[in-house]
Structure formats: structure tokens, C-alpha cells
Amino acid sequence: MPASSNAVTAAVVRRKGGPFNIETLQLEAPRADEVVVRIVATGMCHTDMVVRDQVYPVPQPIVLGHEGAGIVESVGAAVTKVQTGDHVVLSFLPCGRCRQCQEGRPANCLDFNAHNFSGGRIDGTHSLRDGERLVYDHFFGQSSFSTLALAHERNVVKVRKDAPLELLGPLGCGIQTGAGAVMNSLKVGPGASFAAFGAGAVGLSAVMAARAVGATTIIAIDIVPARLALAKEVGATHALDAREQDPVAAIKKITGGGVQFSLETTALSPVVRQAVDALGVRGMCGIVGAAPPGTEIDLDVTEFMQMSKTLYGIIEGDSVPDVFIPRLIDLHLQGRFPFDRLTKFYPLDRINEAARDSERGLTVKPIIRIGKL
Question: Angle at Cα 17 formed by Cα 111 and Cα 347, nearest 5°?
Fold first, then answer.
């Protein structure tokens, strides 16, 4: 560990299933291309929980958190993108060199897993220690359940200082995934029909984005009445409780044959089938739900072919975060993308409560307050 290091307070997961333990660790100083960010707040995402629970295996003990927002504390000698004092949102980390990155598709980076899920830098080194003991880090290139996060120049997004910084972290993953699926991937347009299967943070972000781009039939499907009510408040024209009616039949009745676009956010195979079956002719279904590896889906191949449907796997809303996140902030400040309606704040010492509330469906998007502006 270099002599130059900072003490940080962080939430550490030391075993499968948690809990998050609040501990003091040591954070290495930034390398030439790295940025230290003083975290103001970090969103909690479903991916944090599935990694905590080893549905996606990552090494432990580890500091999770991948929707950080904060203020640049220091930068490495080669960093030109941001400077000390800038407000930033932290997003996923692409390699920046592969063909997908060069073609403007960083979420499809060929080294995405190594940069975001390996528990360290791409060269195998680490920046967090508990005394002499290693703590895994660099989750999504940030590990932002911490008072300070070490990110790379590539995954810090400079944002306007008149925006509410403590609210912005979820734009780095969950919110941009739902909104980007609508705006970038499916390219939902004015007058279109759209259905979101699942009214969690991603699904409701998609609903808001569909409204922002001018879709006129926007259908939310869930089994939690409070989330369906919220969907109506933020842009849905229809809200369907899948426990009380067949959503496919209801959607076909509402639209006269099926929606042009659907988005599946639950990662449940039967729901994927519903999202595809609810499409009309030449309809397109996007999948963003994080299912366990090996999960399979069944489709009626003949019907899928004859109706010329499309099934599209989507990562991070196909977004270029440096472009898309500022765009969402502008829409929010204009009152056209009210994602604050999804959030509830928790202090760092109540992070386990935030996780439980999220898993029980009590809070759509928890945000963990960590530092002050």
C-alpha cells in the first residue's frame, strides 16, 4: 500500500448474503488516469443485492455501490476530463479501446466483466485495504458505498452544478438503463404504444422516458398496487395488476392487437414470454432484467416469426453516459423526467434497512446519503 492513502468509511460485504458492515478502510491515492471522488450519495441497485448474494459471483470481502454522485477530491497527473471541485456522477467502466467502445457502444465493451465485476483493476491490482488485508474494490469501476471512491477518468461524468447532486447517483445505472432502453435502444417515438413489465426503478424510468418522447399509450404492469399508482402519476396511461388479469390479453384489448414496444425488467422467464406475446406485428421487446446465468426462455417460434417480432438484449440503456446522463438531468430540471418521485434517502448506517426495503418493494430507489455538499 503506498504511503499516500486516505482513511475511508465504507460498507463492506464479507460473506454471501451480507450484511453490509460499516468499517474504516484505507484507500490508495489515484494513479495517473484515476479520480478520487468524495461521495455525497449513492443509489442502491438490484445488482448490488444480486452480487452481495453471489447470484453473480464476485470475490469477497468487497465494497459495492455503483451509482455514486459526488465532488472530485483529487485527480491523477494525466486526467484532463475533470478537475478538483467538479460535480460528477459515476457510471460503468468500459475499456475505451475495443471495437464496441470505439463504435460508441461502451455498454457492450468486450472487457465489461473484467472492468466491472472482477473486484479490482484490470491489471489485477487493488486500491482498498483493511490494514494489511485486501478488500476487493472497483465494483463498476467505483465501489461507491464509501466516503471516497476511486474511479477512472472514463467512468466519471461531469454534471452541472445547479442540479441536486445527492439525487443524481441513480442516473449512473438503473435510471439510465430504463430511460436509455426507451430512448436509445427501442427508439420509442411520438404516438407510439409501449408497455413496461415491472414497475420498479428501471420500469418506471422507462415509463417516464416514454412520456418524455411523446408515446401516447404507456402501460405499466406489476403486482404491487402502490407502484402501479405511482406509474400512473409519472406517465402511464394504463396500469395493470398481473395478479388480477392476464396482462397480454389486457394489452391487446387496449391497443387493438398489441404494443409496438415492450420492456421486460423482472428477469423472470414467464414475464419475458408475456412481454413478447404482448407485441403487435413488427413489435420490439427489450430485455434488461438481470437473470441468473443459465436462465432460459420459451417462445412460440412460429408466431414470433410470422409477426416479425424482435427481441433485444439491452445493457445500461445502450447509453454513452457522458452524453446521456447530462441529457436526463436537463429533462429533470425542466420537469419532464421526475425521477425524484422514485427515491427515498437513507444514511449510510441504515444501508441494510435500505436493502431490505428495496427487496420488499417498500422503496423503489433507495439512495444512501454518505457525505455533505
Answer: 90
State yes or no: pLDDT of 2 exceeds 70: no
For residues 24 and 166, membership in a common domain is answered with yes
Are the CB atoms for 37 and 44 separated by under 8 Å?
A: no
Q: Is the dihedral of CA 283, 284, 289, 294 positive or negative?
A: positive
State the average pLDDT for the chain: 96
What domain range includes position 29? 5-172+338-369
Please indicate, yes or no, if residue 330 is contained in any of the structural domains.
no
Give me the number of domains the chain comprises.
2
Residue 4 burial class via C-beta count within 10 angstroms: exposed 0-12, middle 13-18, buried 19 and up: exposed
Task: Count the neighbouring beta carbons within 10 Å of the beta carbon of residue 281.
Answer: 11
Return the amino acid letter for 95.
Answer: C
Inside any domain, residue 307: yes
Q: Is there a contact between 310 and 337 (Cβ–Cβ < 8 Å)?
A: no
Tens of pLDDT, residues 254-290: 999 999 999 999 999 999 999 999 999 999 999 998 8
